[in-house]
Amino acid sequence: MVDRNIPIIVGVGQVMQRWSDGDAANAPSPQSLMADAVAAALADTGQGDAVGSAADMVMVTRIFADSLPGDQHPFGKCTSLPRTVARLSGLSPQRAVYSHVGGNVPQALVNEQAAVLHEGTVKLAVLTGSEAIAAMKTALRGGITLDWSDDTHGETEDRGMGDMLLDMYELGNGLGAPPLTYPLFEHGLRSRLGRTRDEHLQDMSRLWAGFAKVARDNPYAQFDQDYDAAFLATQSAANYPVSDPYLKWHVAQDAVNQGAAVIMTTIGEAERLGIAPEKWIYLHGSAEAKDYLVSKRPDLSRSKAIEASLSMALERANKDTASIGHYDLYSCFPCAVTLAVEALGLDDETAELTVTGGLPFFGGAGNNYSMHAIVSMVEKLRAAPEDFGLVLANGGFLSKEAVGIYSAQPSDYIPQLVDNQTQAEVDAQPEMQRLEQDCTGVIESYTIGYSKGSMARAAICARVETDDHIARIVAATPRGDAALALLQQLGPDAPDPIGRKVAIVNDGMRNIIDAVFD
After folding, report:
1. Distance of alpha carbon 48 from alpha carbon 125, whole angstroms
2. Do strands 157-158 and 95-98 pair parallel, antiparallel, or not at all (unpaired)?
3. What does each C-alpha distance from 268 to 4, 122, 123, 406 come to in angstroms?
4. In this structure, are residues 127 and 14 in contact, taking their beta carbons and an 8 Å threshold?
5. Is the Cβ–Cβ distance between 214 and 187 less than 8 Å?
6. What stretches of 3-133 adopt beta strand conformation (E)?
7. pTM attached to this predicted model
8. Distance CA 250, CA 186 (A)
9. What does the DSSP assignment read for 354-367?
């Protein structure tokens, strides 16, 4: 007998808007993009009015402006973004949730709602999110005043920013925004693979050229140019350095106007509402895990959280990589894809690694990118109902992973609300001890940040032998003129920093790179 509480996806929708006419009335806002995506998802169910009336939960992925400290709202904000979106969409849900920060959130919300729907505490959930960063930047450049404020009230569960993904030790010693931290993983991976800097640049660009081709043919992609590997590997005015080893088009592009929505319910409720079975997509397996702080991970060239979550999701779905026909591997930076490809044992030249075109080319819609991936995956699987698809969503600094395996084939899989089993695998890895002292070590990875085409600052991770074990120290370039000489010793015209000795001094507040030796 079929369990009528089995959770399913029954509706999906996504929108993209290019606004350039300068008319404030035509400018998209985060809430308008979400409302448009929800409208598309409701229509996609084939029973939009009935589904909208049945919605008792709305969950909104946290927008970028609410993901950083301080006031990031130049055009005003909503008192309750979930309640505003519900009102604009004609919904009257009993519950409204505003998520915490992280690119893992869309998949994590699907996993959560699958469990809650099966429990019966929710009957129909609308998940949505958006970013209108392109419109914000266009308006600010053009001196255009927009009004994104709304005072719709109602009980809302605001989950806040979530856990800190870097601590004060890391921030004080030169780490920070993703483009300044992901190079630690990228260069660590490059070193483990035995590549020169140029060889790795070429490989990143080859991989990304394939993603760009997918975006070129995606009508919802914000950036649909067909960039080839030669362009992506070459520094130019259109592809300037961001942080070593990344040029502009190697990293997620956040200047987007994009929204997506997913509607979930149960088999029994879908039948009651008259939603055709051809619309139903099942979750066959899932997993979630959170890794240590970056500087405490034992190996910067790997991600235990990615490895464990992918392996566990496949095990729960009773599938292997040969059984999965479609993937969307989170693509904020090339190493995120390469580490997942390694964990899955895929060939990155033949496997379908993205169904959207990825964050650099489809668009990095903040924390909500993977909801677009889920929407695109659902559409692909409806067209090929025998196939299976896997979505890997990543948050922070390879910090939080969420995986979902989908198909139109029926499934009785139900996620747990808390994935202790996968987390236990991650927590079993050793934790690196960190130092704050004068010492000499060997550079294991590094990051160099650029400003207006010139090297501006750097940070290194080095391994230091103590009396009975190996510890790690994170250190930054000094301030002022002394930084330039050190940057020149680390930069692209110098020998590879990895494996070189480094002297570090602690000034009582932070670790500072004093000298690098050949």
Report:
1. 13
2. parallel
3. 4, 13, 9, 19
4. no
5. no
6. 7-16, 57-60, 95-98, 124-132
7. 0.97
8. 12
9. -SS--TTTT---GG
